Amino acid sequence: MTESENSLESTPAETTIELISIALQAVPVAGGILSGTAIFFLDKRKNERLNKFLLNLAENLNQVQEKVNSDFIKSDEFRDLTEDVFSKASETRQQEKLDALRAVFLNTVLSKKPKYDETEEITTLIYNWQSRHIILLKILFAPLDADKQRGNIVGNGGGLTTSIEEILMKLLPDWDSDQIERTWKDLYDKAIHGTPGTKGTMSDKGIHQLESRLTEFGLKVAKYLTNPI
């Protein structure tokens, strides 16, 4: 038997896991925990979305390594956070949710006073939501930016009256009335905003009618979901 016949060749999946492990191990201080936890979930769930999530996270952590809360990284809560986020990411298919989980992880480790219980509550919200909940939350967090990205389709208004539904139909042309109402109600039920429905008429102030609708908790969630990079 030749030497080449005796050697074991790595499969593509094994190579990918090795590359991700190396990328995570390179993260200062946290690398060992990140890599070890990632391998556990990579062995269970082999999919490209999880691979990209982990590689992007490693890249982001290296970009902000000087700002990371090193005391938190050394705590048991950091290990719990890593397991919680990686577990939820491994079972998530929607890119908006994966991006949101990554943002929550980054914002937590960058915080001067991380609150694990608060973070866990928000990651659970994300896990139970659909992409549409995250999309609408981001619109409510920065309505002027959302309108600008869509070519100022709502603008400052111009008619006598309008409604939240009418505004959102312009911002989200692929959504129907039922989808808007259900998503709005879901966020209301979770105390993300304080307005019961979308169909009531109001003076037409255009996109400004979406401003200041988030509750204190809704603002907190939205900030966790904002990518700090």
How many distinct helices? 13
Shape: elongated
Number of E-type strands: 2
Helix fraction? 55-70%
Largest sheet, in brief, is:
2 strands, antiparallel
Low-pLDDT runs of 5+ residues are 1-11
Series of H and E elements: HHHHHHHHHHEHHEH
Distance between the termini: 53 Å
Structural class: mainly alpha
Radius of gyration: 21 Å
Mean pLDDT rating = 92
Strand proportion, as a percent range, falls in: under 5%
Assembly classification: single chain
Strand order of the largest sheet: 1-2
Descriptive notes:
The N and C termini lie far apart (53 Å). The longest helix has 16 residues, at 48-63. This protein has a two-stranded antiparallel ribbon with strand order 1-2. It is built from 13 helices and two strands. The protein is mainly α and 229 residues long. Helix 4 (48-63) packs parallel to helix 7 (95-110), helix 6 runs antiparallel to helix 7 (95-110) and helix 6 (76-90) packs parallel to helix 8.
